[in-house]
Amino acid sequence: MLFRNRFLLLLALAALLAFLSLSLQFFHLIPVSVAKNGGSSKSRKRIMPDPVTEPPGADPVYEALLYCNLPSVAERSMEGHAPHHFKLVSVHVFIRHGDRYPLYVIPKTKRPEIDCTLVANRKPYHPKLEAFVGHMSKGSGASFESPLHSLPLFPNHPLCEMGELTQTGVVQHLQNGQLLRDIYLKKHKLLPSDWSTDQLYLETTGKSRTLQSGLALLYGFLPDFDWKKIYFRHQPSALFCSGNCYCPVRNQYLEKEQRRQYLLRLKNSQLERTYGDMAKIVDVPTKQLRAANPIDSMLCHFCHNVSFPCTRNGCIDMEHFRVIKTHQIEDERDRREKKLYLGYSLLGAHPILNQTIGRMQRAAEGRKEEIFALYSAHDVTLSPVLSALGLMEAKFPRFAARLIFELWQDREQPREHSVRILYNGVDVTFHTSFCQDHHKRSPKPMCPLENLVRFVRRDMFVALGSGSTSYYDACHREGF
């Protein structure tokens, strides 16, 4: 009888786990081994949120912790996963800069005291941190596209300056670089040991935090960080649109999206009361406090475990933080439903996606130039790309977020090339709008390159519903 009861209990638990693994969805994919025939079981799409750490609903504090991206929190990575007969051809990496000091100050409060010098024996720690500082100190003669040569190569202020990368931000990207090195170089031999400058394509905006983040990732990634081989191009636009930045219709979408944000905020009476309460604490008009974007500074306090500021009128506290962060979550949900941001994203992301597929096509033809591309960017860079790809459920880009495009060649059919899309180590290929149905017809755990090319060259314009067939026409169409 005892044996039978135990057997029934185990059977019930097994059934419950099976139900959960099939019913829960998105973004915490379970890595599974891929079948030798190039396919994998349907379980590659299963997901299982961590029952200990992840709340059942959208919790503002938990979302803020994800945004901080603490280096001490381990994460699973699915980069470089493919059947044994697939060869990695090229990799294209988009990153958001690492943890930074706020861009805004809460009026009439003391700035959070964060040290932006790099100290090897201070947390957060990375075994390459000390060597990174030493190498960057010798790099003043590096060849960068103007005006990047005037930027500091690593953060070095005892009290962080506005927007400056912190030690946490450097460590985040040293970790990213080490992770990608283990996968792409040690396992897949993407770059030869005698790699050359023309095999890398490096681009960054003109902010010290993006240049330094890119350098930290490269230092963790490259087996031999040689200044003579490092050349960063400067990108003036956060959209990385190069010579295709003038797009009036994109700007109209953005204006309508900003109007949507404004109206949603007006409807949130709890948010307005919270701003009013905070304004009284710091003794400024509510409009002035809101314009100072207090959540940016509060996130710095939160991520670095520094108390929120106080005045003689009281203290800003976690309840204020929760209300504002909850509204941000609601705003993301409303943004997906209204789809104005999608229109902005399709036009905003097109130039950089078009550049990327161009490099992929050249790599597929056998060219060895620019087989590893790195764009060191901002949240306002990654967010439109994620939206344009159809990844509507993707989290807002956290500090040191990474979005990766992998190009693979099938050795059994060398003319066939496929892509995988990964966001923060999670394979989201079959969540993209251009490949969400492909896995139903094919056992291969990736998507044909031609699907991505067709999406960028044609389907992005179809999704706008404008009848346009080119980026120029979509940007300049009348009557929007």
TrEMBL record:
MF annotations from Gene Ontology: phosphatase activity
Known catalytic reactions: 3-O-[beta-D-GlcA-(1->3)-beta-D-Gal-(1->3)-beta-D-Gal-(1->4)-beta-D-2-O-P-Xyl]-L-seryl-[protein] + H2O = 3-O-(beta-D-GlcA-(1->3)-beta-D-Gal-(1->3)-beta-D-Gal-(1->4)-beta-D-Xyl)-L-seryl-[protein] + phosphate
One Gene Ontology term from the biological process aspect of the record: chondroitin sulfate proteoglycan biosynthetic process
Membrane topology: Single-pass type II membrane protein
Annotated InterPro entries: His_Pase_clade-2 (IPR000560), His_PPase_superfam (IPR029033), Histidine_acid_phosphatase (IPR050645)
GO cellular component: Golgi membrane
SUPFAM superfamilies: Phosphoglycerate mutase-like
A Pfam family that the UniProt record links to this protein: His_Phos_2
Keyword field: Glycoprotein, Golgi apparatus, Hydrolase, Membrane, Signal-anchor, Transmembrane, Transmembrane helix
Principal subcellular localization: Golgi
Compartments in which it is found: Golgi apparatus membrane
Described function: Responsible for the 2-O-dephosphorylation of xylose in the glycosaminoglycan-protein linkage region of proteoglycans thereby regulating the amount of mature glycosaminoglycan (GAG) chains. Sulfated glycosaminoglycans (GAGs), including heparan sulfate and chondroitin sulfate, are synthesized on the so-called common GAG-protein linkage region (GlcUAbeta1-3Galbeta1-3Galbeta1-4Xylbeta1-O-Ser) of core proteins, which is formed by the stepwise addition of monosaccharide residues by the respective specific glycosyltransferases.
Subunit text: Interacts with B3GAT3; the interaction increases the 2-phosphoxylose phosphatase activity of PXYLP1 during completion of linkage region formation in a B3GAT3-mediated manner.
Similarity section: Belongs to the histidine acid phosphatase family.
Protein name, as recorded: 2-phosphoxylose phosphatase 1
